[in-house]
Design a protein that fits this description.
Keywords: Membrane, Transmembrane, Transmembrane helix
Number of helices: 17
CATH topology: Growth Hormone, Chain: A
Number of domains: 1
Main location: membrane
Mean pLDDT: 83
GO cellular component, one term: membrane
Membrane topology: Multi-pass membrane protein
Protein name: Major facilitator superfamily domain-containing protein
Strand order of the largest sheet: 1-2
Shape: globular
Length: 469
């Protein structure tokens, strides 16, 4: 743990080096690419299946229940993930985290083809145990590996791979089901491709550099290790969760991630098979563009962090409010009319558009959550703990979301109503934290001095504590 104060990122009085020699296979770009490929193979393909609407099933209720089980177990595995890092390191934790995804895809395959339900639930359980560790590990790596001026772009680049899985799933499904203009389940052939891709995740993870091997352009070493005993880690993680600065972000995390089950269930309930495939393809492309634009803006060095943080926050608030208003009007009408929209149907455009925009909103919210965590952590050990807390809190909200959306009335209208209300109540607590980002005297980190300098990047204005060498 930290026994002296030393900034991870350069302060105003330090010269920031950006041309430190690096080998391509040790660079942050290389490592973010490997991390992205792991993301593509594991949660990316999971997202591809989910983006088909209810995992490609004719009814969303079993798959929503399975996803609720997955996220419940992820809450537990996220919480204890820093203990696992103590024993096998951050790279080992990432590889371990990829193992459980393929069994879940196999469960969806057998359910789709043979009607088997138990393997869907068993696969969901295995996925939950490993995925919580994966979520923590990838978040910590994505925050800690890149140089400060590249953090936003690196996050956007990394998250692009997750959406690439969704786009691939949509493209495959669109090719196989382009003539199916009615409601129903997708072709089981799709899942064979998904199983193979998810099984490749652990192999891809072997190519990631350990933190000590990473070479950054600023010459700084990456230290992502847990050296204290496991009980100390559990106590520290619990302590961070109970702090004001994290508790005030819990509702904001909730409004961001609760939406996933809501809009994918919306897609499954009200659209034909080929329209669902088109939805996963188009929404993925739009979300990639929006996420990378936000990442580049958050890195823009000529605008102060305070302005970048506040303008991004209020843009997200306004857009989300508009989209939830739109969705509320639609689902209230659909509850009575019970439509099935195909791309040839009248009214398809206005009903389909809100799904695309909510998917894009999920992506920019997701990236912005990492911006929050980057500005909360005071040491690289805290990055691991905050990453675990972020992903565990996400999992808890998503478990609640998928569980509730397995109830018919909630899936039809209640999910949209609840998420709209959650958005409204989350704004003030999140603002109480965010308004201090980039200010001279931050109440968030009393032991740190927040400064501005010409080379700042995503969250680069804060000093941090690091452990003695």
């Amino acid at each position: 743990m930290a026994t002296q104060e030393s900034p991870i990122e350069p302060t105003a009085g330090q010269t920031e080096q950006r041309d430190y020699p690096t080998k391509w296979y040790r660079s942050t770009f290389y490592n973010m690419t490997i991390l992205g490929l792991c993301n593509f193979a594991a949660p990316g393909i999971w997202g591809a299946m989910n983006s088909l609407g209810a995992g490609g099933a004719a009814s969303p209720h079993l798959v929503n229940a399975a996803n609720a089980l997955t996220f419940c177990l992820m809450v537990v595995s996220c919480y204890f993930s820093s203990v696992l890092v103590h024993y096998i390191g951050i790279k080992g934790a990432l590889i371990f985290g990829t193992i459980g995804y393929a069994p879940y895809a196999a469960g969806l395959y057998t359910n789709n083809r043979y009607g088997t339900e138990w393997l869907t639930l068993f696969g969901a359980a295995l996925c939950g145990i490993s995925a919580g560790v994966f979520w923590m590990a990838e978040a910590a790596i994505a925050i800690a590996y890149p140089e400060p001026w590249n953090k936003g772009k690196a996050l956007g680049y990394w998250l692009t791979f997750r959406l690439s899985g969704q786009i691939l799933g949509g493209a495959i499904n669109l090719g196989l089901n382009a003539d199916r203009d009615q409601a129903g389940k997708v072709s089981y052939t799709v899942f064979l491709v998904f199983i193979v891709l998810q099984a490749s995740g652990p192999i891809v993870g072997l190519f990631l550099n350990r933190p000590s091997k990473v070479q950054r352009k600023d010459g700084k070493k990456v230290e992502l290790s847990i050296v204290r005993n496991p009980w100390f880690e559990i106590r520290e993680t619990t302590r961070l969760f109970a702090t004001k600065k994290f508790l005030l972000t819990v509702l904001w995390i909730g409004q961001a991630v609760f939406a996933e089950a809501v809009f994918f269930t919306y897609l499954a309930l009200w659209f034909s098979v080929r329209a669902r495939a088109l939805g996963s393809f188009v929404s993925g492309l739009v979300a990639i563009i929006c996420g990378n634009l936000l990442g580049n803006y958050l890195d823009y060095q000529h605008i102060a962090l305070r302005i970048r943080a506040r303008s991004s926050f209020w843009l997200i608030v306004v857009l989300q409010g508009a989209w939830w208003t739109w969705a509320t009007i639609l689902v209230t009408k659909f509850r009575h009319t019970q439509p099935t929209y195909d791309w040839s149907s009248q009214g398809f455009g206005h009903s389909f558009g809100v799904f695309v925009l909510l998917t894009a909103g999920f992506q920019i919210n997701y990236l912005f959550l990492y911006f929050f965590i980057t500005n909360l952590a005071q040491s690289e050990e805290e990055i691991i703990r905050y990453a675990a807390l972020l992903r565990g809190t996400e999992s808890a909200w998503q478990a609640l979301s998928y569980g509730l959306n397995s109830i018919t009335i909630f899936s039809q209208v209640g999910g949209v109503y609840f998420n709209f209300a959650l958005w409204a109540v989350a704004i003030w607590p999140a603002w109480e934290i965010l308004k201090h980002f980039g200010t001279e005297k931050s109440v968030l980190a009393p032991n740190a001095v927040s400064v501005e300098h010409s080379g700042d990047g995503l969250g680069a204005e804060e000093d941090f504590e690091v452990k003695d060498k």
